[in-house]
Amino acid sequence: MAERFDNERFVTLLERLIDDTSKDVEKIKGRVDLLEYRFNEFVKAEAIKDKDRVKENSSVRIININNAWKLVFMIESAALAYLTWKFQK
Amino acid sequence: MNLLIIEDQYTDYEVARRALLAVYGDVAHIERAQSLREAIGLLQTREYDIIISDLGLPDSEGVDTAKAIMAVAGKTPLIVLSGSTFNSTFEEVLDETIEAGAKKFIIKASTNLIKRLPEEVKNLLHSMEIRKELLGFNHGREV
Fold it and tell me: What separation in angstroms does the CA of A57 have from each of A65, B19, B33?
């Protein structure tokens, strides 16, 4: 006999998963933002003229903030695929 | 799109408002509250798509500001702006704000606001669409 699909549980799990993932990504993005902010403050304080050259040699550009956001979409899609598979078993 | 900006500093409000109008001019309707009390009054009587708030207001500061807004905002997403660390570190303020339920955290430097705020509003709108789609998926389905 078919088991009734528990939509409410599915939504709760999915919401929790998305919220937790989004929080983690926002914390990472925030730290990248802070790194850039502090770098710019350092450049101002030290009156560094060739900012781009310093930046190229630093770790500031390791993570692109927009790419971090794409990661959330990928994880959301993966979460949906996983939960759909799990509930369809 | 109805936006509420909670910001007591006029210059910061203007930078945020102009940055948003430059991108969403035709569709954005922006209102301003200058204190937590005023913001709560507006949130209790009107509906907004996104709330943007400074953490340092005349009647509230730090993560408590975000918590108080979230308490009356329901599911309306909150973008937090912060230029102070409130006797803490930026990392602590960031983590606590996100854990309290804010969706985005932006450091309040003018160049950052101009670039990041419209970007984050766009990301948030996109995310809300996806979430709506995902959570509406398979409604009432039996397996």
Answer: 19, 31, 43
Q: Under an 8 A CB cutoff, do B138 and A84 touch?
A: yes
Neighbours of A74 (CB within 10 A): 11
Tell me, what's the ipTM? 0.78
Task: Return the residue in A33, A65, A77, A87 with the most chain B beta carbons within 10 A, the one to mutate for interface testing.
Answer: A33
Ramachandran category for residue B140: left, alpha or beta (phi over 0 → left; psi -120 to 50 → alpha): left
Nearest to B9 by CA among B52, B43, B44, B56: B56
| Per-position DSSP letters for A27-49, written without gaps between them | HHHHHHHHHHHHHHHHHHHTT-S
More confident residue, A8 or B90: B90
pTM of the model: 0.76
* CB contact (8 A) between residue A18 and residue B134: yes
